[in-house]
Amino acid sequence: MKVATWNVNSLRVRLPHVIAWLQREQPEILALQETKVKDDDFPVREFEALGYFSTFSGQPGYNGVATLSRVRAQGASLEILGFEDLQRRVLGATFGNLRLWNIYVPNGQSVDSDKYQYKLGWLAALRTHLAAELAQHPRLLVVGDFNIAPEDRDVHDPIGWQGRVLVSPAERSALAQIASVGLTDLFRRFDQPERSYSWFDYRAGSFRRKLGLRIDLMLGSEELARACTGVRIDIEPRGWERPSDHVPVVAEFTNN
DNA sequence: ATGGTGGTCCAACCA
Questions:
Q1: Separation of alpha carbons A247 and A197, rounded Å
Q2: Which positions 13-72 on chain A have a beta carbon less than 7 angstroms from any atom of strand B?
Q3: pLDDT at residue A149 above 70?
Q4: Is residue A9 within 8 Å of residue A36, measured between CB atoms?
Q5: Measured CA to C1', what is the nucleotide nearest A245?
Q6: Chain B bases having any atom below 7 Å from a protein CB
Q7: pLDDT by residue (tens digit) across A171-189?
């Protein structure tokens, strides 16, 4: 089973990329973030034509998450338990025996902004929520744009980035707290190329110079970590015409 | 280089 995550930064603009990528990769599940499309406008039929069901939680202009799947989603949830959020950033659902949360963590803007405090509060609520989820669902997978680079090796220039939003100690600590409920960064369970990044700023020729961050993650429960046979980042779509600034991350799992 | 580019939706915000 192949599961992928991709922040598309507008599904309307990126629909041709998503379709082309789905046709090539044929994943069982693709989690999308920053769809920026309201539910009435979601391209359900376009994905149906490719053999995918769509589950989505969107709003106009910002945010929005969607999960495409070969099998129909069961029990979709659009909220972090007990956390009021007007921003559509999470989508939980069950696919067969897999429990999947597709998340778009707040960016945080800068460490001295209100948005940074919102991000830290959001992550604390997510931790509590995922602890409860894990108690109910041993086959739990949490994927999406975490907007946190877990370690310095996930950052092209750790000195230049030190202390800034996306790499700050408080954010990394919040991520470690989430992992501590029983989730592991599946990407790092395998040998990976050096300088593996999932996001490249549109500015300053970052992709051409391969200057990025690894902020798109797949966290798996113990049971799913055992079933995971590989994780890779596919940077190819970043070189396509009018790309997203993020690229897909793909994990493979055995069927048992 | 306190900039740069891109998306939403048309002024300003977000990333």
A1: 9
A2: 13, 36, 60-62
A3: yes
A4: yes
A5: B6
A6: 1, 4-9, 14-15
A7: 999 999 999 999 999 999 9
